[in-house]
Each structure stands twice: as C-alpha cells, then as structure tokens.
Amino acid sequence: MFSRGALRCAGAWLALALLTGCASWTPPPSRPLSARILLEERFARRTEQRLFDDGRWVGAWALAHWHATESASAIESGLDEQVAAGYSIEEALLAVMSRAGLWAHAQYGAWGELRERVDGGCPVVVQQIRGEPRAREFLVVVQIDAESEVLQLMHADGSTTEQSAGAFYRAWQPSRQWMMTLCPPDRVTWKIRTPELMGLVRYYDARHESEAAEKWVALALERDPQNADLLTGLATRAQLSGRSNAAELLFRRALMINDRHARAANNLAILLADENRALDEAAALSRRAVALEPGNPNMLDTRGYVLMKQGKWAEASRILEKAWERSTVLSTRARAEIGIHLTRAYIKNEEVHLARAVASELLKESPGLLVPSDVREALERPGANPLSMQN
C-alpha cells in the first residue's frame, strides 16, 4: 500500500497544480437554491460514510512500546500535519513513524501473517468494524494464546480485552483484514515478503538513506524479478523522483508480465497523460484499468483525466461523476483531487452551476483548499452564479 505522499492512483499532476497558479478562495455571494440540494439529487450516495475513531494514539503507543527516542509531541504534531493536509491516519502513520526509527507497513493480511508477527514479538495494529452505523476501531493485537487462540487486544485508552479468534475475525474481516506492522526494521523475525521489501525501501527513502534503500531494491529484484506488483512499485518510486523514462520502462515491464495489472495500467496512463503524449494509448490503458476495477474511484478519475487531456469534456464529466460519487471512501485530499477534475470538466461543458456546487462541497470539507486559478476565475466570472454556494 502506498501513502498519498507516494503516487496515489488518480495521479500526482494535481498536486503541482495546487502549488502553482493557485490561491486560497472564498466563494462569491450566494443565491437561495443550495449546493447541498443539488448534490443530494445528483449524487444520492454521497452521504454514505462510516464513522471513524481517531487512530493518532497508535503513534504514541508505538513510541512507548519500542522505547523510541523521538518525542511523542513531535510525532503527534507530524500526524496532525498529515491529517490536516487531507491524508488518512493510516497514510499519516506510514509517512511519519520513520522519523522515530520505526518501520510502518500496512497490508490486507491473513490470520497466518498476523500470528507469525505477534508470535515473533511484534504486536500488530488492526482495524475492526462493527455496529450500526458501521464504526471503525483501531486495536493492537498484543498476544495470541498458542492453545486457545484467544487474542489479547489493546484499545485507545490503554485497556486490554480478550477476544476469541472467531469473534476477532468476524469484526476484522469487514476491514479486509487490514493490519499494520510497526517496529524497528531490525526486529523483523519472520520471512519478509516482497511488499514488505518495498516497504523497507520506502522507509529508507524517507530517512534519506539512499544506500540502504538501493540495497533493498536490489534484493527485491533479485528475489522476485517477475513480480508485477514489485515492478509497479519501483516504477512509481522512479516516477516520484522525476525519472519518468525509468518509470515508463518499469511500468511496461510489469504489464508484459501481467497485462491485467490495473495499477500499472492506471499509472502508465497518468504518466503519458501528464506528458501529453500517446494519448490514445493512455486512453486504452485507463479503460483497461477501469474494466479491471470498475468500482475504484481512483481508476475512474484517471479515466476522466485522460479524457480531459483528449478534450472529451462531456464524456470526462460522466466518468468523473462516478469517481466523485464513490470518493467518500477516500481521504479528503484524494477526494479534493477528483472534485477539482470534475469541477473543471463541468466548466468546460458550460455546466457552471454544477461546477459551483462541487466546489462548494470541496470547500466545506477542506476550507483551506487551494483552487487552481483557471477554475477559480471561471467560477467567479460575472453571470456564472446561478446557484448558492451555501449549504
């Protein structure tokens, strides 16, 4: 799993757009018809959201458990900054904990993987989802009894409870068995897998220890040279460091091994569209990614982005509407990227009333959002304000 600090599937181009030619923006004066009503009519599922607990406590727990020297306040501040920027707490932990010398690796795991880490002396952070409305809770699996398979779980308030393996799994399964390993790298006692090797690469990249990072890259490629996931991860790493030629070669190599690799197809489509070349190929790649993962808002967003690059604004808006409707499961930052795409497509389609409604929603969710200058100017144009920006 890649943090949003790494390349999210929908594309890194907007991050640049938000840093250049943008300014903070206040909506123009409103009219009676509200954006809320418009969006509820057009996007019926937009209000479907799960309740989340605050997982920031995991950082402080890890510092104390592993006797890390980094101050708890510094880690808490780092997590707050990441969350304020629109990243999820899971992404924030991946980005910040390396400062304390702790390697964080998140994955959708299995019972056997959970057990081998806990049995090896490494408590594992998990999520359970239960109740109505469905609410997520972060827990730490501290111990698993070898005979009874009863788990000892620690909660945010520091209390511990016991749970049978069956009850644990029933509440763990709805999170797709999400788990996070959080420990010093030298405490790994289990046979490390390829995704974890890439996690160690990211750990040493974050600590600017390039020699150590390249050592793990070499080991990963030596151990698993035909792994399309690994090649896609390395391609994304190259793309983020500005080595687009190397990234393209690695993406293509991954697709030669597995032409149904959705993320490789998706991210290669982004790379080509970012460079405004081979747009027909980018379109075909984005279509393939959506066909493979039709419900993934990131894939839909990439498809819409490529269509925008081709000047197919009406088709782009239809696709981006689907991405926007499904984006409630994403972080606010990722949702903002999709929303800006959709807003721009609506403007190009001369549907400014819809563009303003989406912009209102974005600003409600992220009051400090920097709106690209071309979007801001179009929304502020005289006579282009048929709907209220107020909720």
How is this structure best described in words?
- There is one protein chain.
- By secondary structure, the chain is of the alpha+beta class.
- The protein has one domain: Serine Threonine Protein Phosphatase 5, Tetratricopeptide repeat, CATH 1.25.40.10.
- The protein is 53% helix and 12% strand.
- Helix 3 (57-65) packs antiparallel against helix 4 (72-84) and helix 13 packs antiparallel against helix 14 (297-309).
- It is globular and about 65 Å long.
- The two termini are 36 Å apart.
- Residues 1-34 and 384-391 have low confidence and may be disordered.
Task: Write a brief structural summary.
With 391 residues, the chain is an alpha+beta fold. The protein has 18 helices and 9 strands. The chain has helices at 13-19, 35-42, 57-65, 72-84, 89-96, 111-119, 165-172, 194-206, 210-223, 228-240, 244-257, 262-274, 279-292, 297-309, 313-326, 332-348, 352-365, 373-380; strands at 22-24, 51-52, 103-108, 124-130, 135-144, 151-154, 160-163, 178-183, 370-372.
